[in-house]
Amino acid sequence: ETKQILLDLYLDNVALHEQRKENIPAWLFDVITDMSFGLKGEHWVQQFINRYESHLLPDVRAGWLMYARARLYFYQANYPDAIALLANNQPFHEQHYFYTRPLMLYAYFATANYDAFIALLDTLKHTLTRRKNELAPPKYTALKNSLAILPKLYKLRQHYTPALFNTLHTQLHNPQTPFHYKTWLQQQLAAMKQQPKTMPAIKLRK
User: Fold this and answer.
1) Among residues 30, 28, 14, 87, which one has the least CA distance to residue 64?
2) What is the pLDDT of residue 197?
């Protein structure tokens, strides 16, 4: 599989840095901890974090470790602990906002914290529009698509209908359309089909 081959190349890169007694670039640490959850499992990711946390540069170590652990909590569906970490952090990257806030938004959605979800969704949309040039086009498009489909997922939670479910299923499973945290969004949609419920309505902002 392509992802496994790519992960193996990244791990070879880590081994090379370790052999040379060099620090691991933050981007490499980040991409490995992100990819490995689905390929290696949460226990492997935790072991990787523990083994290589000291290999990150000291001035960025705390921030990237916070983010890696928050994402691990998120993948484990431990959303409250993910939110707690993400809500109390210092900037660790020029785009730290686009690392931490979307993840927090999804966690709010998963925990049905809809007041916080809607407020952050509105802020994220405006910030993305204002700062779109800071992101690579693929990342911008994927995040924009996710922010557009989340209100529809919220609407489906309020009032489940097969027609809306099928529309969202088609959108999320279109291989040509990128979404930020696409697999997670697909899982949220699938869960609604298993347990359709009508949720208290909160008006979304325009």
Assistant:
1) 30
2) 56
Pick 169 or 159 by higher pLDDT: 169
Specify whether the backbone of 205 is left (phi greater than 0), alpha (psi in -120 to 50) or beta: beta
Question: What is the signed CA dihedral for 113, 115, 120, 125, rounded to 10 degrees?
Answer: 120
Residue 170 to residue 69: CA distance in whole angstroms? 32
User: Going by C-beta distance under 8 Å and a sequence separation of 6 or more, which residues neighbour residue 168?
Assistant: 149, 152, 153, 156, 189
Q: What single-letter amino acid sits at 103? A: L
pLDDT value at residue 203: 54
193 pLDDT band, cuts 50/70/90, is: confident
Distance of CA 27 to the CA centre of its chain: 15
pLDDT higher than threshold 80 for residue 95: yes
